[in-house]
Amino acid sequence: MKHMNSEVKEERTSNKNRIDLFLVPIVLIAAFLNLFKIWTDEYANAYYTAAVKSMLQSFHNFFYASFDPGGYVTIDKPPVVFWIQTISAKIFGFHGWSVILPQALAGIGSVLLLYVLVKRTFGVWAGRFAALAMALTPIVPAVSRTNNIDSMLVFTLLVATWMLFRAVRTAKFGWVLAAFAMIGVAFNMKMLQAYMVLPAFYVFYVVATKITWKKKIAFLTTATVLMLAVSVSWAVVVDSTSADKRPYMGSSQTNSVLELAFGYNGINRLTGNTSVTGSSHKQPAQTEQQTASSETKQNSNSSADSSQSSNQRKSSSSQKMQAPGGGNQNGMFNTGNPGPFRLFQKGLSDQISWLLPFVIFSIVGLFAGVKFKGPYTTKQKESLFWLAWLLPVAVFFSIAGFFHQYYLIMLAPPIAAFAGAGAVALWSMYKQHNGWESWLLPGGILTTAALQVYIMSPYVSSIGAAPIAGVGALGVILALVLAVRKQRKNSLTNYLGAAAMVVLLAMPAYWAMTPIIYGGNSMLPSAGPDSSSGMGGPPSTATNSKQSGFNGMQPPGSSSGNSSSNNQMQPPSGSSNSGQMPGGSSNNGQMQPPSGSSNSGQMQMPGGSSNNSQMPNSFSSKSSSSKRKSGGMNAEVNQKLLNYLTKNNTGEKYLFATTDSTSAAPYIIKTGKPVMAMGGFSGSDPILTVSKLKAMIKKGEVKYFYLSGMGKGGQSDVITWIKENSKEIPSSKWQSTSSSAQQGPFGNGTLYEITLK
């Protein structure tokens, strides 16, 4: 801290040493948090891992990002990140860690890029602190340790930011084009989410460049056109290709990439209308719950090992679902209630908001004395860029109808940048000013420590009271001492300032390590003492927080496990009860098994109170296993079923067909053979009709069907036809136990055979 006052000295030190020695441990910390033990995640997010397995088999599958080797349906995202993952798997071999590696490296790269972006304008110490804050933001390593897209997306947007800053410094239009083209590339990673940074790019270029308004408009218009062209390039190619020559576009309702981009993966995320059942739902609570239920099913095999008691399995399935973490959480996945303080609610605050009060004080300090008409310094211009990134994204997450906790990584770069730049600015004001500006540093430390106590308080049973009390006490003491010693220029004051920064980063550092300590969840990554659940929020009542996540669903053909857990799903109090599960009937928001299935399939979520709607858990990963098969899905294979299907395959293209990707993914990963997810990711895509299925059976493409009762959605007529025209295979031939049928999520699963002539 004592060097923060002298940027000249810092720059000389930086120029003298090609490698910033202070940056080395920061990078090592980021590498540890992002890379350590990723080799234990055997399947990662199995939905995406299965796609990589398929993409390795042919260029056709590679180009379209086909979920299955048969090219039946794609995954629900654009292909760029999965192209990179496939290349990694081609180089290093197909493993869980090889598909995670690109995201882990992107997480480390984001730390380095933020250092470079902040250091040049705000000084070396600002760059160092920004890089450290980025590395220790809990959601950053939590996402980077999976094969989800967001870490690579943020890295790509930071590359675009570097290009934009260079365009302003060099006054070269080519860098403007490159920056906006890079956003177009990011669009082909996660569609409209990439455009969340556009306000920052437009505002910064307009304010920072010293050219005429005519040129500014012309340059930005041209760059935007290029960005749009790059964005839709893959979509136009796919949508222009005959539907019978490519896979169905997964999670779309019209087999269109553009519809997927601007609907399901676009505007619907804001409105909450993310239903993929083909009908138009206007109630956000219903559509959110409906989509969430299908993704919950995908996520069901997190590293929980808790069990269900027999009396729970016998109880009624009409109980309601409670949001994870209890309390007043609206909707699922613990994303809180929409409103101006949503980012401070539990479940979100512990992922991203640890330094937000300090950031607010930093923004005040960085813009102190700024006049609307300018002129603006370089620091003020770049501060405006980060503010124009932070505010629109924060507003989106404050009002959005549906998103997951790990999307919050989009807020990490501006928060970290302001933390670094603000630390230097507030320290300088504290040492040199006599007015109100000198109180910003102690005020920022005090309020940030208070928020961190609030964030940790629901976790007292997991982490103990000592860390919470320690952060609170040290924060208050250091803030008060700094206030008393204001303007005293001596080494003790410098050490106190440094100590305050350490205190504010201590618990974020611990939270960032929780995916390593407790185990992560590859489907719905989050950080915290219950990180293996992928649900965030306070830990459940399970005796072991590592076991507080979803109980895993079983692979086809395995029997239900003996288990007990008191953490089930009920709708949050005060929320709409109109939601229903795909294939189930509406019952005022209560979860119902599909008609005709038994009520013994039960479902549970962490943090809820006991009820009777639980999922069987024999599909959960084993905590003692050296390879974690969480996979976010059924990352297990019933070998007896696989042997039966392989032995009785008479040349059919597909090993078997099932309702959705949950049951299909582990068999694709295991065998590399085509398995048909008839309804795509959630089982609700309108891909298949009875006539199409008849034609496929007559051509000898498929004859075995595994139906578990989930994912009926818009294909109920197909499933009805299968049941009416098939021969049921005795369970003794394919089930791994003597159980009469597979205990699926909401009923008994059955294997059918159909042969048409």
Question: Care to describe what's here?
Answer:
The protein is mainly alpha-helical and 757 residues long. Helices cover 50% and strands 2% of the residues. The protein is built from 27 helices and six strands. The protein has helices spanning 7-16, 23-35, 46-55, 59-64, 80-92, 96-122, 124-136, 139-144, 150-170, 173-190, 198-208, 213-240, 257-271, 284-298, 310-314, 349-352, 356-366, 378-399, 412-432, 440-456, 460-463, 465-484, 491-517, 639-647, 661-671, 690-698, 716-724; strands at 657-658, 676-677, 704-707, 727-728, 742-743, 748-753. Strands 1, 2, 3, 4, 5 and 6 form a six-stranded mixed beta sheet that branches. β5 (742-743) and β6 (748-753) form a beta hairpin. α6 packs parallel to α9 and α20 (440-456) runs antiparallel to α22 (465-484). It starts with 6 loop residues before the first helix and ends with a strand.
Overview in brief:
With 757 residues, the chain is an all-alpha fold. Helices cover 50% and strands 2% of the residues.
Distinctive features:
mainly alpha, 6-stranded mixed β-sheet, disordered N terminus
Number-wise, the strands total 6
* Overall helicity: 40-55%
The overall average pLDDT, rounded, is: 80
Q: What fraction of residues sit in β-strands?
A: under 5%
**Overall radius of gyration:** 26 Å
N- to C-terminal distance: 80 Å
Task: Set down the secondary structure blueprint.
Blueprint: H1 7-16, H2 23-35, H3 46-55, H4 59-64, H5 80-92, H6 96-122, H7 124-136, H8 139-144, H9 150-170, H10 173-190, H11 198-208, H12 213-240, H13 257-271, H14 284-298, H15 310-314, H16 349-352, H17 356-366, H18 378-399, H19 412-432, H20 440-456, H21 460-463, H22 465-484, H23 491-517, H24 639-647, E1 657-658, H25 661-671, E2 676-677, H26 690-698, E3 704-707, H27 716-724, E4 727-728, E5 742-743, E6 748-753
Parallel strand pairs: 1-2, 1-3
Antiparallel strand pairs: 3-6, 4-6, 5-6
Helix pairs in contact: 2-6, 2-7, 3-5, 3-25, 5-6, 6-7, 6-9, 6-19, 7-19, 9-10, 10-12, 11-18, 17-19, 17-20, 18-19, 20-22, 20-23, 22-23
